[in-house]
Amino acid sequence: MKGRPQAYANLATLKMPPDDETPEKTPFIKDIPPKAADLSEWYQAVCYKAELVSLAPVRGCVVLRPYGYGLWERLQSELDRRFKATGHENACFPLLILESLLTREAEHVEGFAPEVAWVTHGGNEKLTERLAIRPTSEVIIGTMYAEWVQSYRDLPILINQWANVVRWEKRTRPFLRTLEFLWQEGHTAHETETEAAAEVAQMLEVYREVAEDIVGVPVYKGEKSASERFAGATHTYSIEALMPDGKALQAGTSHELGQNFSRAYDIRFAGRDQTEQYAWTTSWGMSWRMLGAMIMVHGDDTGLRVPPKMAPIEVVIVPLAGKGSTTAADFATTLAGELRGEFRVKLDDRDLRPGNRFAHWDIRGVPLRIVVGERDLSEGAVTIVRRDVPLADKAGRESKVPIANISTEIRRLLVEIQANMLREAQEFLKAHTIAPASHDEFIAMATDRAGMLDIPWCNRAECEAAVKEQTSASSRNLREPARGPVCLACGEPAKVQAYFAQSY
Hints:
It is a single chain. By secondary structure, the chain is an alpha+beta fold. Helices cover 34% and strands 25% of the residues. The protein contains 15 helices and 23 strands. The protein has helices at 39-49, 66-85, 99-102, 106-112, 138-148, 193-214, 260-265, 289-298, 327-339, 354-364, 374-378, 394-397, 406-431, 439-448, 461-471, and strands at 53-55, 62-64, 89-90, 96-98, 117-122, 125-133, 157-166, 180-190, 220-223, 235-242, 248-256, 268-270, 276-278, 280-287, 315-319, 345-347, 368-372, 381-386, 398-402, 433-434, 452-457, 474-479, 496-501. Strands 3-7-8-14-11-10-9 form a seven-stranded mixed β-sheet, with helices on both faces. Strand 5 and strand 6 form a beta hairpin. It is globular.
């Protein structure tokens, strides 16, 4: 195989099915195709080859395998720590929602109607009322808040739920869009609109921080347009990332729900002046879609590249068997034990050729590999290999480190790798954030997926619909003020500055 190390020669190519078709079984991947040639094909091949997911028997559903779940646990851990630090508590609400409850908030149910899955039978008996499998939990949580809230003294309620939800998607691919997916959804109730708005802003910033500082994916935050707003919300805010194919990915959302859900589900309380008032509610969520963003933004032709703060395994130790000697194996075992108190470490002493073990962890994107060989040990050293540097750059990837300095060097390299991966992603986003000079240039760039197109915009639904029909692009989020007098899309007076892009 030209241009690829021998350790990868046993991998092969596979033509992936179209995005809207799900094969009956998980495809067998021998070779990860070039990323630049077809991002979709590359992405799915990496998800399967790195053993993040396998296809489930139900169309559009996946099984999250241990390494994939390890990535989710890292994201979950970083989010959960921040939620609790801001005063939120975790709870768990039912999966099933009565149809009569779901239909109380008309705009909400209309927005989700095409995606709702229904339970119509219990055992052999037809139900007298259908049950919705939650596409989101505002309904059931709002119903319970109405029971719990009686006085302003009961507020605020700050609850998060780690859950699975079901949305009946037609076009699916791992992490980005599946029928069933994992996420967290925060739901809060407040005494005043000002408190609710502060909550929404606070959680959006939590999402930005995790996306950039942990996942290494730079984002733009701002408010969604009315057309892109969450069903039933008064304001929706998002963080938006840019993928290598020029498509945007909405990576987290935070919603002001006003009093819409409080009125629909009767969340009333006695105020400080003893008048009856409706609570101001919010909801906010981030799903395993963020893992999809991480895969696409950082991965290369070899496979995953995982930022150290997201890595289930930060360091893998690979001993090289010596002829008739167990020195390397014994040292590797001792080293793994010593490092486990400080790092997430894996010892790979399987009876496989070194090249096969190297390839296994390179595909999975483990940030650092320590190779323990008899010759290096005789010199009082080990070889450390970093994954963020391209495979072809051996000099940049590998370094000999004295045994006494291993722990210090690991710490230094993990910090450097984390910063390096974020910097690379930031440079890509900056290079592909473009301010078109004219209407025609904007339309051409939106059609060609040139990147995040930053334009003064009129903020009119009719304008957005026209752009979407002509180019498939939509506004991603907005901020004030506009940096030009007229909308670049339609020529009407500009009211805001907006990012436009095609999206996942």
